[in-house]
């Protein structure tokens, strides 16, 4: 069943599942959903009180997962639009020509195409090509450093993900969202370090956060900048 509680000015929606268990369990999914598993005889008022007690932690977890939720507004890929690349803003200039090519020229991303309707396709391809090069370049020294913990990713691949900036598979494959190429180098490195930390500690335990802080002091500022920049 679906229900909610009020915590200050925040409304926290949650999904409640009753089962044959002895204790109450509260978790926050990567999609920022709050899942409550409760004993079959647990009164709803006690469940809600437990949620209020845990509300600061729940909001912190939701804020954390929000980092990995791309929220960029839809673009029309027309001249004059502002587009990001490595954290800097560029004006888009779409030009009809005999070739299909994308170039950075000063403060402009210039897209020359045989048909203006292809501007989106060409720009996305350009972003993807640059993401492949930059992500590999930025990840290399971090991968080398994490060998101190006897871990190394099996591979790093790019994949469009509607709700995540990065992820790590049980077999050690790190997946990065190519949309990250729009963020500054520090934001990209933050996501890379985050996923490398998961090779050492699979869950978001205190040991995980201690390692992330040790390897990238001040990671919170890059997390926040990523969240704000690509909101």
UniProtKB/TrEMBL annotation:
Pfam families: YgjP-like. Residues 22-227 form the YgjP-like metallopeptidase domain. InterPro entries: UTP_pyrophosphatase-like, YgjP-like_metallopeptidase. It comes from the Bacteria. This is M48 family metallopeptidase. It comes from Pontibacter aquaedesilientis.
């Amino acid at each position: 069943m679906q229900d909610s509680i009020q915590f200050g000015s925040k409304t926290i929606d949650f999904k409640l599942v009753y089962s044959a268990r002895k204790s109450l369990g509260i978790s926050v999914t990567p999609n920022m959903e709050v899942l409550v598993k409760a004993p079959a005889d647990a009164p709803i008022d006690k469940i809600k009180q437990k949620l209020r007690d845990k509300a600061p932690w729940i909001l912190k977890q939701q804020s954390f997962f929000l980092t990995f939720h791309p929220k960029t507004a839809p673009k029309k890929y027309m001249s004059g639009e502002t587009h990001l690349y490595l954290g800097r803003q560029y004006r888009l200039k779409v030009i009809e020509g005999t070739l299909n090519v994308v170039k950075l020229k000063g403060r402009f991303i210039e897209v020359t195409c045989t048909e203006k309707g292809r501007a989106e396709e060409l720009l996305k391809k350009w972003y993807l090509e640059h993401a492949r090069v930059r992500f590999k370049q930025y990840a290399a020294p971090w991968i080398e450093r994490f060998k101190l913990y006897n871990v190394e990713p099996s591979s790093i691949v790019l994949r469009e993900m509607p709700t995540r900036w990065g992820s790590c598979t049980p077999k050690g494959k790190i997946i990065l969202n190519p949309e990250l190429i729009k963020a500054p180098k520090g934001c990209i490195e933050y996501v890379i370090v985050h996923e490398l930390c998961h090779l050492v500690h699979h869950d978001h335990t205190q040991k995980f956060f201690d390692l992330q802080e040790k390897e990238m002091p001040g990671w919170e500022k890059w997390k926040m900048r990523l969240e704000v920049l690509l909101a």
